[in-house]
Amino acid sequence: MSGRMRPPSVPPGSSTSSGRCGARVTQERSTPHDPGQSGQLLRGRSGRHPSAAHQGCEGPGAPGGERTSPPTPAASDRPPRAAARYPVQYDLDFRVAQRRALNSRSVELRLVPLAKPLQFVPGQYLLLSDPEGEILPRSYSLTSRPRPDGTLSLLVTEVPAGQGSRWICRRLAVGDRVVVDGPFGDFLPGPRDVPEVLYLAGGVGVAPILALVEEALAYPRNLPLTLLLSVRGEADILAGDRLQAWQREYPRFRFIRTLTRGPGDPPRGRLPALLPGLVHSLAAVSVFAAGPEGFVDACATAALALGADLARIHTEAFVSDPKPWGGALT
Predict the structure, then answer these.
(1) pLDDT recorded at residue 84
(2) Which one of 69, 81, 144, 191 has the minimum C-beta count within 10 Å?
């Protein structure tokens, strides 16, 4: 595949790109990081939340200002891995089987394998590019559990000046071939022996959350699940029909959207500030937060203030960084 940028192989337990690891989801991210370190609160260096370069993310809680972070937990304080990871596969051929516009900037894709399927765990992400090597691989979260037929689902929101998202949202059509590398990431389902799970999503951060919720709804035990989704306006709710359907079908699943701009019913405001009024104590509750970096940082801080255990807070943060990871052309 001449001209394609391939991510470097990173041994488990190491760090890359200044210790930032994990972020993904449907906006463009240019840096696949160590799967063994992503998706857990504060596993990067300098006490920062793990996150990878993720281009042009928009949504509540945009990055800005100096942050303070709790100390990095010792390895013994971190929860055990709840799911096995599959080895990374490269140059898998897929075809676009379905494309659905969700709003003026976002599309949902369904990809079918032309040969070997991609094996992954819910919450992970892939790298997507074109067979000709004209588009640098960009990372997008998988939005569902693995399917028996090997189909993959993605949500993609166009990023201003984003090469990959512009290609997907404006040019990619049903029948086109694409190339997939993956899986990457460690934003995985947590232990099931918890009384409740809380999901906090900002904008397109709902993408990996969808896969995690779908996986949790398949659990045999009646585990209560709550998803709080922060968006600018009603038109920015992605996969709202799926979330509403789950809420009707599963009494143990609760979905609440919050608005930061535009008209609409309450709750309104920044989700981290609204959190104390929407949930009770988070002691022993598993918390998963995904979205823009500032949003995720603020959610983690708010969850800690409500009694959440640091070791049970899992994060996926996105930052604006258009630079590729610096791998060699292959």
Answers:
(1) 56
(2) 191
User: Across-strand partners of 329?
Assistant: 5
Looking at the domain assignment, is residue 132 inside a domain? yes
- The reported pTM is 0.76
- CA separation for the pair 116, 252 (Å, rounded): 36
Output DSSP code: residue 151: -
| 219-224 contacts, C-beta under 8 A, 24 or more apart | 219/192, 221/192, 222/252, 223/192, 223/194, 223/196, 223/197, 223/252, 224/195, 224/196, 224/197, 224/252, 224/254
pLDDT tens digits along 152-176: 999 999 988 888 999 999 999 999 9
Identify the domain containing residue 131 by its residue range: 89-183
Bridge partner residues of 110 (DSSP):
98, 153
**27 lies in some domain:** no
Query: How many domains are contained in the chain?
Result: 1
Question: What CATH number is attached to the domain comprising 96?
Answer: 2.40.30.10
Strand pairing category for 197-202 and 225-231? parallel
Whether residue 203 is contained in a domain is answered as no
Following DSSP, what letter does each residue of 61-107 receive, concatenated? S---S----PPPPPGGGSPPP-SPPPPPEEEEEEEEEEEEE-SSSEE
Angle between helices 293-305 and 271-278 (to 10 degrees): 30
- CA-based angle 276:44:58, to the nearest 5? 55
DSSP β-bridge partners for residue 182: 89
> Is 10 a member of any domain?
no
